[in-house]
Amino acid sequence: MKNILITGASGMLGASLVNDLKNQFNVYATGNSFFKEQHSQFMKFDLKSDCYLELIQWANPDIIIHSAALTNGNFCEKHPIDAFNINGISVQKLLNATNNDVKIIYISSDAVFPSSLHLAKELDCVFPENVYGKSKELGEFFLKTSNNRSYTIIRTTIFGLNLNTNKVGFAEWIINTAKDRKELGLFTDVLFTPISIWDLANEIEFLIKTDNINSESLHVAGELCTKYEFGCKLLDKLNIPTKTLSKTLISSYKDRAKRSNDQSLDSSYYSQKYQRELISLDQTILKLKEHYEYN
After folding, report:
1. What domains are defined for the chain?
2. Longest dimension (CA), the chain
3. Model pTM?
4. Around Cβ 23, how many Cβ atoms within 10 Å?
């Protein structure tokens, strides 16, 4: 049975990956904080540490899924050293701490691309416009320039629900704000291609089981929509009133990190190469509804 080390396991995607893979592989989880629902094999570890030897000797991984990241754009702009350490330099430290037999799946972002690209493809030139995107580009660089290492870079935009109740994601913020009947403004001028954490976990599971970690970049994302359209569909599916929901423009927010108006990714290469049919926005929101009601 393969040993899989999942970083960022106290975060939304990492915790979901642990749940999805723990019954099929020997999963070791690490995160920056303990939490009530954490995996039994969990180590609290600071990715800013100089030495990763303790973590690697503990997990002895065959595969590392590196999902840990600082994703708050404003925080990254104010703390660039932390952003580059955790999102980028950590990749080099993982490479240094492991031999070439250890495969790495690195969760990257649409933020590595410039605003001018619509439905960015894998071979399009990266040109990040903020610290977060630049830190992710650095992580990609370390993998692409590593010698004789099998890796997969997955660029994506996720949404879901946090198993760690100390954290709140984009979808949860929409739900909680609407339920509390507070003003909820969502952008009509921002395009993205969201995929649920559960659907992304399914695709990562597929790549591992079929041994398709082939030293490449893949776009694994969902259906194109605006942030406003996403919020409307989500609240409608959950039967939550939308009276406080309003249309806003990202261009009207000056005191925030620069973020592209077009955050869309084209997943057709991945879908065609591996014969994977990515589900629609309605289907993936339905999956969120099922998890929301279950929890």
Report:
1. 3-166+193-221+264-278 (3.40.50.720)
2. 55
3. 0.95
4. 7
